[in-house]
Amino acid sequence: MLEWYNAMEPFFQGVAVVAICATLIMLIQLIMLIIGFGSDHDFDGDGDFDSDGDIYNDGTFADVFGLKILSIRNFFIFLAMGGWSMIIIYELSENYPIAIIFGIIVGLIMVVLCSYAMKKAMQLQDSGNIDIANSIGKIGTVYLKIPGKRAGMGKVNVLIQERFVELDAMSEDEEDIPTGSEVLIVSQNNDYVVVKKN
User: Fold this and answer.
1) 33 has which bridge partners?
2) Which end of the chain is more exposed for a tag (fewer CB within 10 A), N or C?
3) pLDDT in tens, 10-60
4) What is the residue-wise DSSP string for 122-190?
5) In order along the chain (198 residues), what is the average pLDDT of each group of 10 residues?
6) Other C-beta atoms within 10 Å of 127: how many?
7) Helix (H) or strand (E) holding 68
8) Contact call for residues 178 and 145 (beta carbons, < 8 A)
């Protein structure tokens, strides 16, 4: 490996150092992404910290055709892929200009492809938010007694969006609905549902 490095022109020795460092940083970023760090955060091209969960689908000045091009991740992708491409083409052709132009083109293509792949991957994520409007018409079980005539709030357990959730509930029935009763969810109002005894 050292012989290969020493045999290179000084310019391409520098390119090799940059490409190796960028590749190591990309591997660290990949490992952090896999174990859960850095999945919700990235830096914008202007240096602002963006904490939005869908960084690849938000519009900023750094977007090109809806792809987030200017980011720290893409910077290292450009350096790594472009650098290795320059070295390979120079080894094959021994032509500086062709190697540099080819390396820049390959780096840019890889940035666009990785941005597109990340955008599509982020679109597959589920936000995890429960829309309680989806509970209307469902049967639930009273967890905490619900006073009648909307006199107070109780709680009901119900299956929504394939999740078992606990919702605040009111009743328009004349009598209280005791714990363990089955109820039908008839409407929702902001952060609670309205139920009647089933």
Assistant:
1) none
2) N
3) 888 888 899 999 999 989 888 887 886 654 444 444 444 444 444 444 444
4) HHT-------GGGGTT-EEEEEE-B-STT-S-EEEEEEETTEEEEEEEEE-SSS-B-TT-EEEEEEEET
5) 75 89 89 68 42 42 60 88 91 88 92 84 66 88 90 90 88 90 90 88
6) 7
7) strand 67-68
8) yes
